[in-house]
Amino acid sequence: xxxxxxxxxxxxxxxxxxxxxxxxxxxxxxxxxxxxxxxxxxxxxxxxxxxxxxxxxxxxxxxxxxxxxxxxxxxxxxxxxxxxxxxxxxxxxxxxxxxxxxxxxxxxxxxxxxxxxxxxxxxxxxxxxxxxxxxxxxxxxxxxxxxxxxxxxxxxxxxxxxxxxxxxxxxxxxxxxxxxxxxxxxxxxxxxxxxxxxxxxxxxxxxxxxxxxxxxxxxxxxxxxxxxxxxxxxxxxxxx
Length: 240
Fold this sequence. Notes:
With about 240 residues, the chain is of the alpha+beta class. It has helices spanning about 1-25, 110-125, 130-140, 145-160, 160-175, 180-195, 195-210, 215-240; strands at about 30-40, 50-55, 55-65, 70-75, 80-85, 90-100, 105-110.
């Protein structure tokens, strides 16, 4: 009986030792790390560079395939840092514990166009903190992008800061070929927010050179009349 009990204890000890080793990785052991990268619409992203980083150096690299999948071989168990990069996408670093070979690491990345849409939606909803955050992210990717700068001017206008909006749009108007939306928005700001008909007329004429528009022609005629009448009134005021 004692022999049976002893054998049973030894058998159970061996069994728990084996299962324990199977669930807990051995220090220094490596395996293939698998994962997938997708965008905000949960669609796979092709050709994302996936770098295994150790002590500030890239020790292994690969690219995602058509289905957004990636594989890194020889990855040691323990703390792992991966760097994900692709042009027009926000770089993303993910640090985690790699504990088993069946582990799959899913990563969501955002590209410029997606963040631009988020920025526009936040402005529409007047979610200013979110809008500012999205704009700063856009600036890191493409600081001179005309669409994001134009949207910033719209945001500032709706926040009650038309002069700051004009500063942004004037730079765009001077440094590049005339953009219809920029010139028209400048005209609106000068005419309706800053009471400057002369500058409104100037930018309406620039907008008209880009695109022929009946309404703009009507506004130009009305402003020319307004400015003409205003110039006639000035001498009368000086006499009195």
